[in-house]
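User: Sequence recovery, please. Input:
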């Protein structure tokens, strides 16, 4: 009988390209993944359906869809009909300021839920698909933010206080371009045709092809000499 202790990890799974890649990376590193998805008031359900399909296909130990409603605050084109999703922007424009698709404090909220579940599971590892290269200027995707959160997490938990080992937040995509991420995912056998990255897809999940997320994604596939296998309008 094996004495090797199971390595549990909470993996934040949105149903998009990045989070599906980190799920594959976590599995390749020997972790037993527990997938955490959020219905947070986003304007479409396509990515939630994608997350369910991916979690089932990848055989995660458990898949939780947490229900929170950030529409009560608004402030983002992803949670409020008052704001339009920007379309057709050049890459230079994407790097100028923080776009309206930024959801205030989203990663802080998501990581807090992941931290709570990790503590209950006895897991010491959280995987999140943040990226500081092709990330449209989001402040909660930067390495210094992740490191600050990791320090806070180890101060804020029973496991941290009782010195049961430090919690680690894994960001394997943080310094990769979208092309690099796709290359890594293809090496791990990720099926990108079922992922939904678009900020403004149709009801059945077809991507718009014009929002920042679509533009960066299409570029990433082209850099690998490929066309994106996901459906577009």
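Assistant: Recovered sequence (233 residues):
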């Amino acid at each position: 009988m094996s004495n090797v202790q199971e390595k549990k990890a909470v993996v934040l799974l949105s149903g998009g390209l990045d989070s599906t890649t980190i799920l594959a990376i976590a599995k390749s590193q020997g972790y037993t993944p527990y997938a955490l998805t959020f219905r947070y008031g986003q304007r479409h359900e396509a990515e939630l359906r994608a997350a369910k399909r991916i979690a089932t296909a990848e055989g995660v130990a458990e898949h939780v869809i947490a229900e929170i409603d950030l529409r009560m605050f608004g402030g983002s084109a992803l949670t409020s009909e008052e704001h339009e999703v920007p379309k057709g922007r050049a890459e230079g424009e994407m790097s100028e300021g923080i776009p309206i698709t930024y959801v205030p404090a989203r990663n802080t909220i998501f990581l807090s839920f992941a931290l709570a579940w990790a503590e209950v599971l006895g897991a010491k590892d959280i995987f999140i698909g943040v990226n500081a290269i092709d990330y449209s200027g989001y402040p909660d995707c930067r390495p210094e933010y992740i490191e600050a959160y990791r320090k806070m997490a180890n101060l804020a938990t029973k496991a941290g206080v009782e010195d049961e080992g430090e919690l680690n937040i894994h960001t394997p995509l943080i310094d990769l371009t979208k092309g690099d991420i796709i290359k890594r995912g293809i090496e791990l056998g990720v099926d990108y045709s079922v992922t939904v990255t678009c900020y403004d897809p149709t009801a059945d999940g077809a991507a718009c092809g014009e929002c920042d997320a679509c533009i960066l994604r299409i570029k990433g596939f082209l850099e690998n000499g490929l066309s994106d296998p996901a459906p577009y309008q």
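The helical segments are 17-28, 46-58, 91-94, 106-121, 143-156, 158-161, 178-187, 212-223.
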